[in-house]
TrEMBL record:
Main location: membrane
Protein name, per record: Gluconate 2-dehydrogenase (Acceptor)
Location(s), subcellular: Cell membrane
Sequence positions that bind heme c 3: 335, 338-339
Annotated positions binding heme c 2: 214, 217-218
High-level lineage: Bacteria, Pseudomonadati, Pseudomonadota, Alphaproteobacteria, Hyphomicrobiales
Cofactor note: Binds 3 heme c groups covalently per subunit.
Cleaved signal peptide residues: 1-26
List of residues binding heme c 1: 67, 70-71
Chain ranges of the Cytochrome c domain: 53-157, 199-307, 322-412
Cellular component per GO, a single term: plasma membrane
Protein keywords: Cell membrane, Electron transport, Heme, Iron, Membrane, Metal-binding, Oxidoreductase, Repeat, Respiratory chain, Signal, Transport
Length: 444
C-alpha cells in the first residue's frame, strides 16, 4: 500500500470510528440534516412489542446496544427512522432508516443480510459500512441474540424516510478504502466465555465488549482509527468529548468507585463523584438505565477487573498565583452557587470536584467543551429532570475559562496541569461558538 493510500485510509477511518449504529449504503433521495441541540440529550424510546418472549428479548437487546439513540432523530419523533447526524472533520454521516419500511428501511432485508451487516459490516448490496456502525463489537454477538434482535426489528412500524447516509466529500466517500481498514483492524469472532470466571463476569464482558460496545468510545485509537487493544477502556477523545478511562486505575480511571457507584451511575446517570454528560448522558437515558440490575452489576464486575490504565500522576506543572486568583474569582462568581465553595457539588445534580480523576485528567477536551457549550445530564426514571449546565461561551473569555478550570483542577488537594487559553480557543472554534458578548455581571 502506498503512503498516499495509507493516508487516505487513515483520514477516512479516523474520523468515523464512533458508535452510530447501522450506517447502511442505501442512498436514495436526501433527507434533511437535523442535528440535536448541543445541550439536550436525545430521548427516544424503542417501541413496545407484542407479548412474545423472543421479540421482547430482541427489544431488550436493541436497548442494550443503544440502537434507537443512533438511528433516531428526536426531532422527528419516529424511532429507528434514521437521520441522526454525525459531524466529522471530513463531512457528515447520517444514520440509516432501519424501520420495516420496504423502500427506505430494511423491510426487504433478509435475516442473513441483517446478520451480515451486524457481524461483517456489509450492507444489503455488499457495500462496506463505515465503522461508525460498531460491527467490530457486534461481531461478538451470539446467534440467539442476533436472531431475537432481527425478530424485534421486523415489528418496528415502517416509516418512509429516505436518508443519504454517506454525505462525505471525495475521497472520504470511497467505501472501498474500508476493505484495507478491515484487513488491519477487524476480526470476525464470537464472544467466548472464560471458564475461570463467574457467569456474572462473563455476562458483564459480553455486554461491555459486544452489545453495549463500550470500547468504541472508551478505547484509544491509533492513527488509522483502529482500537489500541492493549489499552482497552483507557479513554479517548471523540467529537470534542472525552470518553474517560473506565479501568480500575486510581490516577486516571474509576479505581475509587465501588461496584454500587458504577451501577448507580449507569442506572441514574450520576453517583457520589460524577454526573453523566454529553454522549454518555444519552447512553444512560436511552440504554443503560433500562438494563436489569443484574446486568448492571455484571458490567461493574467486569470493569473492576480490567487491566488498569497507567498509574501515572499528573506532571508537576507550576500554576501561577495570578492564574489561581483569577480562577477563584471566576469560580466564586459563576460556579460556586451550584458546585459549592468546597467543590463538593450537589448530589445527583452537579459532580464533586475533590479527588475527581476525570477533572484532573491530562485530557481536558471534555471539561472545556462542557463549560463552553453547557450540557444536560441523563434523564432517567429516578432523576427525571436531568441536571443542566448553562453555556458560558457568551460571557467568559478563553482566558477566564482556562483560569477557572485550572483553579478547579488544583484546589481541594487536586493536582493537574493548567488549562491554556489556547485549548479553550481551539474548542470554541471547533464548536463554532461565538466570542464573548455582553455579560450580565462585570467579569471577574
Amino acid at each position: 500500500m502506498t503512503l498516499r493510500s495509507r493516508a487516505l485510509l487513515a483520514t477516512a477511518a479516523l474520523a468515523l470510528c464512533l458508535p452510530l449504529g447501522l450506517v447502511a449504503s442505501a442512498e436514495t433521495e436526501p433527507a434533511p440534516v437535523q442535528t440535536k441541540d448541543v445541550d439536550t440529550p436525545q430521548v427516544v424510546e424503542a417501541p413496545k412489542t407484542a407479548p412474545d418472549a423472543a421479540i421482547e428479548r430482541g427489544r431488550y437487546i436493541a436497548v442494550a446496544a443503544d440502537c434507537v439513540a443512533c438511528h433516531s432523530n428526536p426531532k422527528s419523533g419516529k424511532p429507528f427512522s434514521g437521520g441522526y447526524a454525525l459531524e466529522t472533520p471530513f463531512g457528515t454521516l447520517l444514520s440509516s432508516n432501519i424501520t420495516s419500511d420496504p423502500e427506505t428501511g430494511i423491510g426487504r432485508w433478509t435475516e442473513a443480510e441483517f446478520t451480515r451487516a451486524l457481524r461483517e459490516g456489509l450492507g444489503k448490496d455488499g457495500q462496506h459500512l463505515y465503522p461508525a456502525m460498531p460491527y467490530t463489537s457486534y461481531t461478538k454477538m451470539s446467534d440467539q441474540d442476533v436472531h431475537d434482535l432481527w425478530l424485534y426489528m421486523k415489528t418496528v412500524p415502517p416509516v418512509r424516510n429516505a436518508v443519504v447516509t454517506n454525505q462525505l466529500p471525495f475521497p472520504f466517500n470511497i467505501r472501498a478504502l474500508l476493505m484495507g481498514w478491515n484487513l488491519l483492524f477487524f476480526e470476525q469472532k464470537r464472544f467466548q466465555p472464560r471458564a475461570d470466571k463467574s457467569a456474572a463476569w462473563n455476562r458483564g464482558a459480553y455486554l461491555s465488549d459486544a452489545l453495549a460496545h463500550c470500547g468504541a468510545c472508551h478505547t484509544p485509537k491509533n492513527i488509522l482509527g483502529g482500537d489500541k487493544s492493549s489499552e482497552a477502556y483507557q479513554g479517548e477523545v471523540l467529537q470534542s468529548w472525552y470518553a474517560p478511562d473506565i479501568t480500575p486505575s486510581k490516577t486516571g480511571g474509576i479505581g475509587d468507585w465501588s461496584k454500587d457507584d458504577i451501577v448507580q451511575y449507569l442506572k441514574i446517570g450520576s453517583n457520589r463523584m460524577a454526573v453523566a454528560s454529553g454522549p454518555m448522558a444519552e447512553a444512560v437515558t436511552n440504554s443503560t438505565q433500562h438494563l436489569t440490575d443484574a446486568d448492571l452489576a455484571a458490567i461493574a464486575d467486569y470493569l473492576q477487573t480490567l487491566p488498569p490504565g497507567p498509574a501515572t500522576e499528573a506532571p508537576r506543572t507550576a500554576v501561577t498565583g495570578a492564574v489561581m486568583a483569577q480562577g477563584k474569582r471566576v469560580f466564586d462568581a459563576q460556579c460556586k452557587a451550584c458546585h459549592a465553595s468546597d467543590g463538593t457539588g450537589i448530589r445527583h445534580i452537579t459532580p464533586s470536584f475533590p479527588g475527581n480523576t476525570a477533572i484532573q485528567s491530562n485530557e481536558v477536551a471534555g471539561i472545556v467543551r462542557t463549560v463552553l457549550a453547557g450540557g444536560r445530564g441523563a434523564i432517567t426514571a429516578e432523576n427525571p429532570t436531568g441536571a443542566a449546565m448553562p453555556s458560558f461561551a457568551w460571557n467568559l473569555s478563553d482566558q477566564q475559562i482556562a483560569a477557572a478550570l485550572t483553579y478547579i483542577r488544583n484546589s481541594w488537594s487536586n493536582r493537574a496541569p493548567p488549562v491554556t487559553a489556547e485549548a479553550v480557543a481551539s474548542t470554541r472554534k471547533t464548536l463554532n461558538l461565538n466570542a464573548v458578548g455582553r455579560a450580565p455581571h462585570p467579569a471577574p
